[in-house]
Amino acid sequence: MKCPRAAYWGAAMLLLASGALALYGQPDIERKWQYLAGEYGVRLDDRSVYIDPAELLSLMQDDYIRLLIVDVRPEPDWNLFRLRYAERIPIEELPQHRARIAGLPANAVVVVVSNGEALSTRAWKHLMVLAKPNAYILEGGLNHWLDVYHQRKEQPRESDRSQELEGDGEPLRHTFKLALGDRHRTSFPDPHHVNPRQYEPKVKLIKKVVKKGGCG
Amino acid sequence: MMAPWDLVAILGDAGAWAVYLAIGFAFGFVLESSGFGDGRKLAGQFYLTDLAVLKVMFTAIVVCMILLFWSTALGWLDYDDVWVNPTYLWPGVLGGLIMGVGFILGGYCPGTSLVSMATLKVDGAFFVAGVATGVFLFGETVSGFSDFWYSTDYGRLTLPEWLGLETGVVVFLVTCLALLMFWGATRLRRALHGDGS
User: What's the pLDDT band for B17 if we cut at 50, 70, 90?
Assistant: First the structure.
């Protein structure tokens, strides 16, 4: 039984298609974001993912919510000051956490923080590309958080040093005499001792779609 | 919006079931059309008398793989959202051996036995009954060997990650491997059984 001519044509087409794919390559994170921008970019444009510090503080006290605060700042800033329960994950390390973040339960909320909004917005885009969690961004970053909750004696600074710390030009504007990390009282302010703050709640829990598959 | 889509959210329960039904119908139709409802044809693969199973299945895998990763490359599909069975290495090896022995002895895999039963073949129906019994027994006893069942867990492990190569390169290599296997298997069958068998 001879091999039909069509089989050779089929084989040639498969080789051509797979060879072209090897040359074209798979999309990296930036290219993938371009594909997803139409779907998720609107949330950045209408600022529906930027949450007020008061909403984040409320989430930090909510036992029902499984909160993951992702701090994407460089280590020196992280050492100076960070939010209680935050986890430092630099942007370039986010892919290593993809499976864990994608597997978060339906009651999980991810909040990305940096000193301002530029770095955290970039990290949010990466997160949406990698795992599409129910993720938000701290509005105004930790500088805004400190503006709201820091009962400071120190004045906001215009530091040259801190500008060296964060690549995206988002220095930590507040001075700290000691690197207290999350032991600073503003890391998790006592809600009974802060001024009530009006905000528009934006966090919504999402319904998780169960993904399964297989072949008999 | 990039695939995969949440069909229930888009079409509702009934619409999603209709899509599942259509895909299942097409799958069964192709299996039956390829002759895979006949246990003798399937078993012929193991005796190198009929290589249709290898050619049809591997062609399906390669075509699906190329379409899948071209769709990903062009931004139509998010591969990270596609379910990939997690790898439990040694349980998978043992399970594959058991299924392979069952395939040779019974002439079917679970899917093809359903196709066979759908065409009222008695051997297919008995095979399905055996599968159901096996599934029941497994479910009742798995707690006794759960340590092994969950051992060597590699999670979502794919060939590009395992080999440390670009996905497109792996797709090309698997395609070459498939074509080489088709060629080699055909040569072997001819050598063993001649052209006409």
Answer: very high
- Is any Cβ of chain A less than 8 angstroms from the Cβ of B116? no
Distance, in Å, from the CA atom of A96 to the CA atom of A109, rounded to the nearest integer, reads 19
Residue B2 belongs to some domain of the structure: no
The secondary element (H helix, E strand) that includes residue A147 is helix A141-149
| Chosen from B171, B186, B187, B192 to mutate, greatest number of chain A CBs within 10 A | B171
Instruction: Output helix, strand, coil percentages for chain B, rounded to the nearest 5.
Output: 75, 5, 25
Number of domains into which chain A is organized = 1
Looking at residue A214, its pLDDT comes to 64
Residue B53: CB atoms within 10 Å = 20
In this prediction, does ipTM exceed 0.90?
no
Domain containing B114 equals 7-193
How close A210 comes to chain B (CA, Å)? 10
Q: With beta carbons less than 8 A apart as the criterion, state whether A144 and A55 touch.
A: no
DSSP string, A97-144: GHHHHHT--TTEEEEEE-SSSHHHHHHHHHHHHHT--SEEEETTHHHH
**How many domains, chain B?**
1
Question: A74-100 in b/e burial notation, b at 16+ Cβ within 10 A?
Answer: beebbebbbbeebebbebeebeebbee
Name which of A9, A15, A21 to mutate to probe chain B: the one with the most chain B Cβ atoms within 10 A of its Cβ.
A21
Residue of B nearest to A213 (CA): B83
pLDDT at A198: 87
> Residue A184 above 60 pLDDT?
yes
**pTM listed for this prediction:** 0.80
End-to-end CA distance of chain A: give it in Å, rounded: 31
String of DSSP letters for A42-83: HHHHTTTTEE-HHHHHHHHH-TTSEEEEEE-S-HHHHHHB--
Residue B155: inside a domain: yes
Is residue B1 in a domain? no
